[in-house]
Amino acid sequence: MRLRNHVVVVTGASGGIGRATAEAFARKGCAVVLAARREEALEATARQCEKHRGARTLIVPTDMTDVAAVDELARRAVQEFGRIDVWVNNAAVNAFGRFEDIPMEDFRKVLDVNVMGYVYGARAALRVMREQGTGTLVNIASIAGAVPQPYSHPYSMSKHAVRSLGSSLRQQLRVEGVKDIHVCTVLPATIDTPHFAQAANYTGHKVVAMPPVYSPERVARAVVDLVRHPRREVVVGPAGRALVRQARMAPALAERAMARQTDRAHLDHDEEAPPTHGALHVPSPGEGAVHGGWGGRRRTAIRRTAVAAALAGAAVTAGRRLTTGQARG
Ligand SMILES: NC(=O)c1ccc[n+]([C@@H]2O[C@H](COP(=O)([O-])OP(=O)(O)OC[C@H]3O[C@@H](n4cnc5c(N)ncnc54)[C@H](OP(=O)(O)O)[C@@H]3O)[C@@H](O)[C@H]2O)c1
Question: Do 316 and 228 belong together in one domain?
Answer without folding.
Answer: no
